[in-house]
Amino acid sequence: MTIEHDEKERRFFVRFDDGDAELVYTEPGPRLMDIQHTFVPESARGHHVADALAEAAFRFAGEHGLGVVPTCPFVRRWLAGHPEHARIVDPRYATRVR
Questions:
Q1: Which end of the chain has fewer beta carbons closer than 10 Å to its terminal beta carbon, N or C?
Q2: Number of domains forming the structure of the chain
Q3: Sign of CA dihedral 78, 79, 82, 88
């Protein structure tokens, strides 16, 4: 699976025949990445595509010194199973993942 990052459109995505799987984010402030939405088309569900998108977004945030705001419900659930990434969550929003 090839994950692409479109910084202009603020999304990580994987192309599938029936549409893109994507993780969409905004930048609500300096050094912040607010992950707002994750979507995976029917054909790719059950293949851990959303997990890979979340991993890519957190890796990018960590490499660029960004704090993550976990608005997306999927990402909040994903973080519960990946506590090693909790350090990247902006402290003002850490209660969203507990």
A1: C
A2: 1
A3: positive
pLDDT tens string 13-23: 999 999 999 99
DSSP one-letter string for 21-64? EEEEEE--STTEEEEEEEE--GGGTTTTHHHHHHHHHHHHHHHT
Domain of residue 24: give its range: 4-97
Closest among 96, 93, 59, 58 to 76, alpha carbons compared = 96
pTM score above 0.85: yes
Check which CATH number belongs to the domain holding 88 and give it. 3.40.630.30
Radius of gyration (Cα) for the chain, nearest Å? 13
H/E element, 91: none
